[in-house]
Amino acid sequence: MKEINELNLPDDLRYADDHEWARVEGDKVRVGLDDYAQDQLGDIVFVELPQVGDTFKQGGEFATVESVKAVVECYLPVGGEIIAVNSALEESPELINKSSYDDGWMVDVKPTDLSEIDALMTSDACLEKLKGAE
Amino acid sequence: MNESLGDTGLILNDPLLWEKGKKGRCGFSLPRRDVESAPLREDLIDEGPDFPDLSEVDVVRHYTRLAQWNFGVDTGMYPLGSCTMKYNPKINEKYASLPGLAGAHPLMPADLSQGALKMMFELEEYLTEITGMDATTLQPAAGAHGEFTGMLLIHAFHVRKGASRSKIIVPDTAHGTNPASAALCGYRPVAVSSNEDGILSADAVAEVMDEDTAGIMITNPNTLGLFEENSKEIAEIIHAKGGLVYCDGANMNAVMGVVKMGAIGVDVMQLNLHKTFSTPHGGGGPGSGPVCIKKHLEPFLPVPRVVRDNGTYVLAEDYPESIGKVQAFHGAFGVMIKAYSYIRRMGPKNLNKASQLAVLNANYIKERLKGTLHLPYDRPCMHECVFSDKHQAAQKIATMDMAKRLMDYGFHPPTVYFPLVVHGAIMVEPTETESKEDIDQFIDAFKAIVNEAKEDPDLLRDAPRSCKVRRLDETTAARKPCLAG
Fold first, then answer.
1. Which of B396, B417, B479 sits opposite A93 (nearest CB)?
2. Which residues make Cβ contacts (< 8 Å) with residue B249, sequence separation at least 6?
3. For residue range B423-442, what is the model confidence (pLDDT) as tens digits?
4. Is B393 on the interface with A (CB under 8 A)?
5. What is the predicted ipTM?
6. A4-79+92-124 CATH fold
């Protein structure tokens, strides 16, 4: 597993407590799992995504990810409507391990309130939190 | 014995039976036909199942070879935490194979099954006494089925009171099946965190307990191998708001004859005969998960119930509030005989002693390995102790690598990555079965492995090296499963 200084947590994303990332792309927000989460989970073998059109509040349980080690629920970092899901994950769940910020994205959200994103951590804050937890 | 247990042994390869079969080979011969040949009925004519053609020796060798690849408690130490892989005394098998019991048919009338019914009746009484509860049903097929049955009983209790409650409290140190059993019964599991000592605090329960909560499911001792010391206070909080206390009794092996669950506020609990009561576990099963209850849940117990009526045993169905049957016929009858045999052979004093030795063995391992492995909760444990791979993080060696390497030393690995509250958990439950010499050998093996982690970590990353099958590609197996006979 990675040491904290080996983690890749890009500056242009925001991070939730449970290690989902959120990236504002125009009027939508793209969501996935961060490098820490994919590294801790290990090889991911199954991803259950929501339906397009489903709506969740911030922190709502929107997906389930299963790895060889554990099954975890994922919580939506910003509330809103799911407008797209990465269906490539059905056949190739390993995309989250290989490319957690690009090909391994999970859902696109049309946010109800974009300012919710301000409550999420910056990459620095996320790193600080991980160091504190050590 | 100073030599390591691990070795390759005389292990022979064997293909799948379907690959081994040769057209026309046969394992039996029919006697010469001595009646007129007659055509088969149309509806019986079909291609038949896809079975391979094999001789008797083909089949015997196949399964004997597979058995040689296997590891069981009859082979060696099997310290699988939370599973109580204790030795299964062979005398249990002797009694279970008595023709009168082994051949008993579940549809035989009660007056021709008095021995079988008496045995069930007495087993219920023994389990009731051991747990300090008021009555027992033997029907559930295994632990999680017992949990589900317990949930149905709790649900029936609330329904009779006219209350509809929607939640069940489940601590993070409960067995993983607990929230699933509650959810299957329609309840929403509410998670509660254990405290810094690894047990549940009364305050944490008080915070979430309300009148919409049907009860709590506590695994006691819990999955950290710690006794839930606040159980009684927690039960009072639950009862004060009209809820019931479910105890997952899978870890009862730590407290037989020590704790009367009924006396610390438990209303309903299951026992795992295939753990605590020495019946085969895992592939040797099946399991059996009797449920013990307090008086106020008795009207809801599954039917039929074995009842004694003027010295004869009958199967009684007339319980209008019963949740009904939860199992075809009467449960895993063969398993009941083995558990009955175990309890009768041991007697109260020795059951108590077994628990004491199980706890002693776990504490011995905890004390001797705690400098070598990280011990997140450093306090006296019950039947199992939980370490982590924190000290090995610098060498990038994880729990899985150490577990796999243990196989090269001839031990079944402990439970790993559970409970979830410990990162990289290594959960060791030796049970009372193991002698000091065997436990010392296990401890020495673990110490040697931790040393290898520092000096030659690839030995661990490539482990197991001496097993029939090297490290499995679990990822591909999970992503692209190939299911074949």
1. B479
2. B131, B220, B261, B269, B270, B271, B272, B276, B292
3. 899 999 999 999 999 999 99
4. yes
5. 0.72
6. OB fold (Dihydrolipoamide Acetyltransferase, E2P) (2.40.50)
